[in-house]
Amino acid sequence: MAATRDTVRFRLDGALHEVRNPDPTLTVLRWLRINGRMGTKEGCAEGDCGACTVVLAEMGDGKPVFRAVNACILFLPMIDGMTLYTAESLSAANGPLHPVQQAMVDLGGSQCGFCTPGFVMSLYAHYRNGAVADEDTLRDVLAGNLCRCTGYGPILAAGRAMGGYPNTTEAVPDPVEADVMLALTHSDVRGGTRRFFAPHSIKELEEISAAHPQATYVAGATDVGLLVTKKLQVLQTIILVNKVVELRRIVDTGTALEIGASVRYTEAFAALASLHPDLGELLRRLGSVQVRNSGTIGGNIANGSPIGDSPPPLIALDASIVLNKCGARRTLPLDKFFLSYGKQDRAPGEFIEKIVIPKPAPGTVFRTYKLSKRFDQDISAVCAAIAFGNHKGAARDVRVVFGGMAATPKRAAHAEAALEGKPWTEPYVRAAMAAMEQDFTPLTDMRASARYRMEAAKNLLLRAWLETAATPPARIARAKALAL
Fold first, then answer.
1. Which run of H or E residues covers position 385?
2. How many whole angstroms separate alpha carbon 11 and alpha carbon 14?
3. pLDDT at position 179
4. What does the alpha-carbon distance between residue 343 and residue 454 come to, in Å, rounded to a whole number?
5. For 35, which of 169, 346, 422, 480 is 20 to 30 Å away at the CA?
């Protein structure tokens, strides 16, 4: 085991903060407010409203990368070695405003003001990363920030205008590069009888997992954070996996993508979108920028939620996962990992090391869809993914997968059988739609009724056929007929 330390070290407003043995689940939001930083607000305490948005900076590919994240579900030990920015960081008390702040003032981007610091920080991260500020991009950037006053128009206008203001407030130089050295040693934080481990290598992770097989694994805390803030659970032992170098890699083997379990959604976006545009569109609607900047694909899988958005398309693409226990590895098809509600095929002390996604063969038909009450930042009522190879006009190796239809992400075995080896034509698609009645008995809840879910799932399969099989004129005519 490498040398350890019992402190959390990070930089705020140019000053190095060193917190010894904090409560392992003390949130960054709580720490800020305890220490007089009142600009960061608590709205929902579950990462939905964006009022608590702060910015973290760390080095990536030789340059600082700025991430807007939700401080309300981010544990303080998770920011070890990073630079933290809050609304108070952007300008001195009696100095000029930062361009983002000035644009918000000039264009009326604030009314009651409660949510304003969160909006400012989301725009600030975008500003610092030098990204474009067109309307569509800004809508994505701000999808994780809610405001009940302005109607968003003035805030979007501020985002479009912020690049035109002179910037005289930015700290120069940024201390981010120097902070890389802060987190090189493995940390072991003890809050009374509770512990927070942050290993940096897979060997360290294996050793800690063996010694603490009942520990809670944390990557982005976008799910685990709610256990603390909403369910008020006391987590005794936490193992943070997002600093493990081997779990942060994306490898293109030529025939597959291997995505480390701790790769964030934001970091995996380009690689996954390259497999198929539908994957990119699905990820764009998964949570918000703040959630995607923290959450990981490995975490979404390990959580095992029946409404997680990444498992259905990954199962449709025949993905597998590599599990590691004390250095002994096993590979498991992803659809075999989910056993029942809240139960996965993972032994105590075993962790997901990577996800392996075969590249679709030429001619593969693939579609994935997300249905939710709200386009942005909403949990799916139904998530669907359909994939098959087209062999001489017949569908082969058919995979029809749904989230939100059962206690786990699940393949529609009867629907698949109705399509396997058959022409990809409407009669066989409708037969598969009827067969879904044997595959699922969906629940009624706040997101959708059982009837809605079943009809929606059937129609998503029909939509896949309309988009991939019918010629454009026939597709339009059929769509109009279905709308009558």
1. strand 382-391
2. 6
3. 47
4. 24
5. 169
Give me the amino acid identity at 252: D
Q: Which tens digit of pLDDT belongs to each residue from 270-312? A: 999 999 999 999 988 898 999 999 999 999 999 988 888 999 9
Residue with the two structure tokens 């479009």: 160
Q: Which amino acid is at 377?
A: Q
pLDDT at 312: 96
Structural domains present in the chain: 7-164 (3.10.20.30), 365-483 (3.30.390.50)
Q: Are 157 and 62 in contact (CB under 8 A)?
A: no
Low pLDDT (below 70) residues in the chain: 1-3, 170-187, 191, 470-484
3-state secondary structure at position 264: strand
Phi/psi zone of residue 429: left (φ > 0), alpha (ψ -120 to 50 degrees), beta?
alpha
At which residue do the structure tokens 């032994």 appear? 347
Distance CA 415, CA 405 (A): 14
Residue 198's nearest CA partner among 84, 314, 285, 80 is 80
Tens digits of residue pLDDT in 43-97: 999 999 999 999 999 887 777 899 999 999 999 999 998 999 999 999 877 889 9
Compute, in degrees rounded to 10, the torsion defined by CA atoms 312, 316, 317, 319: 60
For 255, the token pair is 């025939």
What is the DSSP secondary-structure string of 115-177? Answer: SHHHHHHHHHHHHHTT----HHHHHHHTTT---SSS-SHHHHHHHHHGGGS----S-SS-SHH
